[in-house]
Amino acid sequence: xxxxxFECSKCIPERKKHAVVxxxxxxxxxxxxxxxxxxxxxxxxxxxxxxxGAKHVIGTPMKDVIHMSHGPVGCxxxxxxxxxxxxxxxxxxxxxxxxxxMKEKHIVFGAEKLLKQxxxxxxxxxxxxxxxxxxxxxASALIGDDINAIADEVMxxxxxVDIFVCNSPGFGGPSQSGGHHKxxxxxxxxxxxxxxxxxxxxxVINYVGEYNIQGDQEVMVDYFKRMGIQVLSTFTGNGSYDxxxxxxxxxxxxxxxxxxxxxxxxxxxQRYGTPRLDxxxxxFEPLSASLRKVAMFxxxxxxxxxxxxxxxxxxxxELDWYKERLKGKRVCLWPGGSKLWHWAHVIHAEMGVDxxxxxxxxxxxxxxxxGIARCEEGALAIDDPNELEGLExxxxxxPDVIFTGKRPGEVAKKIRVPYxxxxxxxxxxxxxxxxxxxxxxxxxxxxxxxxxxxxxxxxSKDEIATDKGFxxxxxxxxxxxxxxxxxxTDLRQYTGKFDSVSDLRSKTYSSFxxxxxxxxxx
Length: 522
Fold this sequence. Notes:
Layout: E1 19-21, H1 50-59, E2 66-70, H2 73-78, H3 92-95, E3 98-99, H4 104-109, H5 112-125, E4 131-136, H6 138-143, H7 147-157, E5 162-166, H8 176-190, E6 204-210, H9 216-226, E7 230-236, H10 241-244, E8 252-255, H11 258-272, E9 276-278, H12 284-298, H13 301-326, E10 330-333, H14 339-343, H15 346-351, E11 354-360, H16 365-374, E12 380-383, H17 387-397, E13 401-404, H18 406-414, E14 419-421, H19 432-448, H20 450-453, H21 471-478, H22 500-510
Helix pairs in contact: 1-8, 5-7, 8-11, 12-13, 13-19
Keywords: ATP-binding, Iron, Iron-sulfur, Metal-binding, Nitrogen fixation, Nucleotide-binding, Oxidoreductase
Cofactor: [8Fe-7S] cluster
InterPro entries: Nase/OxRdtase_comp1, Nase_asu, Nase_comp1_asu, Nase_comp1_CS, Nase_Fe-Fe_asu
């Protein structure tokens, strides 16, 4: 077995089976790390809990809802505003977060009275919002507060409101994925089938596992509308609480993120006979194939082909421009779950970059199987790495850029590796034909940015030079660039002059530790 043992984790021998290197000709049976297991004590995992998976990933994107956490304020604060789940409800769900703010005394004496008081106060503070999701945390679950009973009491006293209860304490699974399952099943058990929708098309779908990160959902819904398809509900990006109660009337469930939402699709198929079709909105070829599949289900293939032809003609030349300049650049693909395999092959095929490592914080074995199968030979695959393992991997692999979340991304910047936010994006949306070009542009900007090159200057011992220009000006002069470059300058004309950035980065890696010496000033 091609297990990879990190030097920093030799004191935790169990971690050896959580990382593998994809060797030549090896099958998934030879190169699959252990995954979706309880965190090994002492590894200081960065992955989220089941509560986070329920509230932060799936619940919060619902736009017309008060999202109330019954627990300490830190739980709701940690799951607030870290992803850009935008909505056409003036981003109500992003502006506010709610918690009962349990204290020690509530642990001793119970907090059901506190919960009811907070629910009523929240509805009074926002009289136009009549819907609420109520999330249980570890603290309220451990003391046995009956949040279902409290929700029923409030709905009886306030008949115009409706409350959804999600019993999703943090310990409810080994990672966020446990929370995904809980909220999926709770929603279909409690709410689906309670509202009858208005059907306006012969082709009706639920768009499932889509969270509208920086407008991803709007891009895809536009394609569906151009094909004459009614999107009954989106689970849950920019989704309306009552629309999601009508999911049972769709003709087809179109599933984007299988890791977070396949559970509700499978239940809808079993209970209501609704078929499930998995799609991929990232990349020209996967997106084209996805639009064709949806169109074939309804027998409207020509509508999909017209969209594909139009969008490809408009955006493919720009994608090719970036591909030519990104060929051979080394990428660590370190997202949360499904983007591991959504992106692994297509960024290599359509952007020319080489994926040298993949990892997932909360994915299942299936995510690793698909991710490893789609990345290049020699790639390092890691399940639930900690900060030290991530640093060691970057030192050894010397990537030009990593795609990951904010926490590991900030760690990468400390050792002068640029990163793109794989969870909330830098300048999204990334779905759709135009979005894929936007993603390529962000990769290009991260790798070739002259601003990032400033990180290689060690100014800790600089004297204040009163008779010379800024060191920045000198640095730009060294690369034969005009010091008048501004944020509005088209950097494409300077592409060839930035080739030295990768070389400089290689020298920088080999110099850690100690710190990189500063560039000399002439």
